[in-house]
Design goal:
The complex is a heterotrimer.
Chain A lengths: L1 E9 L5 E10 L4 E5 L6 H7 L8 E6 L2 E2 L6 H7 E4 L12 H11 L4 H15 L14 H13 L5 E5 L7 H16 L3 E6 L10 E6 L2 E6 L1 H6 L11 H11 L12 H14 L1
Parallel strand pairs in A: 3-8, 3-9, 6-7, 7-8
Antiparallel strand pairs in A: 1-2, 1-4, 4-5, 9-10
Helix pairs in contact in A: 3-4, 3-5, 5-6
Chain B lengths: L2 E10 L7 E11 L4 E5 L6 H8 L7 E6 L7 H6 E4 L12 H11 L4 H14 L16 H13 L5 E5 L7 H16 L3 E5 L3 H4 L5 E6 L2 E7 H7 L6 H11 L11 H18 L1
Parallel strand pairs in B: 3-7, 3-8, 5-6, 6-7
Antiparallel strand pairs in B: 1-2, 1-4, 8-9
Helix pairs in contact in B: 3-4, 3-5, 4-5, 5-6
Chain C lengths: L13 H4 L2 H17 L3 H18 L3 H8 L3 H14 L15 H27 L2 H12 L11 H31 L8 H29 L17 H19 L1
Classes of the chains: A alpha/beta, B alpha/beta, C mainly alpha.
Chain lengths: ~270, ~280, ~260
Amino acid sequence: MIRLENVSYSYPGGTPALRNINLEIEEGEFLGIIGRNGSGKSTLALHLNGLLRPEKGKVTVRGLDTRDFARLPEIRKLVGIVFQNPETQFVGRTVEEDLAFGPENLCLSPAEIRVRVDRVLAETGLEKYRHRSPKTLSGGQGQCTALAGVLTMEPECLVFDEVTSMLDPGSGTAVLKRIEGLREKGKTIVYVTHNLEELHAADRVIVMEQGKIVREGQPEKLFSDLPGDPGLALPSLIELAAQLRAHGIHVPWEKTRSPETFAEEICRLFSKT
Amino acid sequence: MPIILKNVNFAYAKKTPLETPALRDINLRIEKGEFVGIFGEKGAGKSTLMKLFNGLLRQDSGSVSVDGLDPSSREVKRKVGMLFQQAADQLFCRTVHEEIAFGPTNFGFSKEETEERVLEALKAVSLDREVLLRSPFSLSGGEMQRVALASALALRPDYLVLDEPITGLDPGGKTETLEALKRIREQGTTVVTVTHNLKGFFPLLERVVLMQEGRIVFQGSREEYLEAGCGPLPPVASLMRELKNRGLPVNPAAFTVKAALEEILKAKSAFEEKT
Amino acid sequence: MKEPVFSYVPGTSLLHRLDPRTKLAAVMLLGVLTFRAESFTGIGALFVLFFTLALLSGVPLKVFARAVRPMVLFITFIFLAQLFFTEGEALASFGALQPSLEGLENGTRIASRFVLLLLFAAVLTASTNPSAITAGIERMLRPLPLRWLGVTSFELATMMNLSIAFLPLLFERVERTKAAQAARGMDFGKSPFRSIPALAVPLLRGLVRDAGELALAMESRGYQGRARTSMHELSMKGRDWAALLVLLLFSILVLGL
């Protein structure tokens, strides 16, 4: 879907943010990108639909080069980004108008825009907020609106840049569920975060440090051999599972997802003995 | 003397068609030397509540007192240090030194006194003296947050009130800030934090206040909160609760990995003895 | 928390269904009319028109009151200035201040005009989706040779939309910064020179960042400042022309009064 070849980038007057990145994002995959602040993970995300263009190397989206200005509208139709701060990504004064912004830029007909907006409003359960200002919504609803505003463009790939970092855990979980739902529908998902817990369902995770990809693998493998890195706190349930393993209690990876599945598994293990 | 709120009510846009009640019948007592966490969803009234402590907002009815004083007095502004969400946004000086000295200078302390306070505050947040002459904007997110913290500490507040102090920081920045807060509390300052980051704050808290739709629905010690299980829990504590609900003899007040491990192993041997 | 002063109230009334261009033209015409109408009968007729429109729109009256409220102080000031400083037959005497009959008439006229202007604008904004207004303006501007000025009507429309959307964000930032610096003991009244940078620097930094983030989000969603469409279909229908005709007749009537 997206291919990065020897991509390097530095901000004007700054230190290099990306150093020689090579990455292939497959169709339909859920890719997690993790790293501390300043590791280059957000810079990488901005490269995925040509908001930033590489200084060296190239980024192609289904074969379209992001340095080719004429192809940018097409690229942005394919790859949508949801950003961290719900407050600064709304353009419309009502939820409905905000959802229409993308399709309006695609120069769709008013009737087609209506159809898309209404459909996405129904899908995301935002109908009742249709005429509300997106700024008056709660954090969770706000991020849901931001996502909806990207969905009306009907992209194939969605990039999420630390979308839960301002949310309370409840809303964060809800947003994450929605994202996993999109993946079921075959969308390609790129999820940038510094919270390992959120990458449980990812197919593949890359770890970034100082503009480089320093590790890559399935979350299960990756989490089990991450050293005690203070910048990347290991989810406590996974840590607990690792410690239980040393005492002969094996809670498999899939069950460490939530306290409920974890507890179920422990009870099952105990009743077996 | 503590912070005491009695039967406090507050509404925004009072006496207009848009009146929205934000706090209803709040009774709260924050003792000196506690580490208090105020939890609740967005819109539960947490941030409104904290603004009553130093007179930024005034209650419609009921009473608020800080060490027996009215919160609108200037003395209370010094007693109650306050940091809002994304506190690093409020930095504005050319150097970290000026930034931390801003508060003491506003209160008219002498040069020597200010200097002493700056160094003391810097030490409290474990920043190196060499950052004093640097621009606050050249620092990392966690460091900026600690400079903001130091700028509040330079007034030697008796109470430090914080709104989401670790939201938006990366795990490293979170740990640094939490460690600084822990030390501040150990040195005798009362710390009150509004937060939804249960996992990070839980090990530090002594008391928990849970808010819902402008009301306080729970207040008590951390252990009581875990026993009651009435609000959101950190992951390990919710695991313990799940296990207990499924009939395992575990203590629901365990919330660290270490404690949970012990509880589960204990439950296992109890189970094995039985069978 | 705060509802905007000129807010849209969704509905399906005749007024809601009119093309935004009709309503924009109407408000412009009524604006001119308001300042042309000299007689009190004319002004009275305009008030009657407003109430008719308000009834037609089905929008609660308090929404219109909200549009006038922030200006009440200003309007009162103008009224009083006219009342006391217009030469003419004295009505009473308070020392140096002598309210005159001419002043009373002038004051009432001017105050009524401001109120009417606000009310008609509120009818437009209450019955028209904000972006439909911008879409209407954009369409009206499109024939103008704006290209010479280096902008397109699309850019202008988006700019209008954004500046309105950005205002609440700005106010919120001001409030937040004020509260944060007050908590650090800043006293604006006592030392404004120290306080100005303490407010301005965080505000500017914040705004620059907000604007940057917003620009990225817009670009990411395909915004290029070139031609775009609008969700709001604009088409002048029979009822639009009828409304404009009625208004024109009304204008002639008022000017005649």
